[in-house]
Design brief:
mainly alpha
Length: 91
């Protein structure tokens, strides 16, 4: 089932990462994304917006009841990490 979820995430990823999705974030969601961006502070990226889009992409793939960090997500689901890299324009 997890493989299906990752494949589905890669296929529907562009639809999920949108300005509308960002507008509907709760305070906890925004805090998670801010923490993710902070964790990526020393990572080379074209600009801060790319890091924010990457973190938004990663966040949108998990249920709010799954309290995991961005690093934990990258380790658990490498295909999702790669998909969010592409979607954000990072690499």
């Amino acid at each position: 089932m997890k493989i299906f979820n990752v494949v589905a995430a890669v296929v529907v990823l562009p639809a999920l990462v949108s300005a509308g999705a960002a507008a509907e974030l709760s305070a906890a969601d925004r805090a998670w994304i801010a923490a993710c961006v902070t964790q990526l502070a020393n990572e080379p990226a074209p600009n801060a917006d790319v890091k924010r889009r990457y973190c938004l992409c990663m966040h949108e793939q998990f249920d709010d009841n799954q309290p995991v960090t961005q690093t934990e997500m990258e380790r658990m689901y490498p295909p999702l990490h790669r998909a969010c890299n592409r979607e954000s324009g990072w690499k």
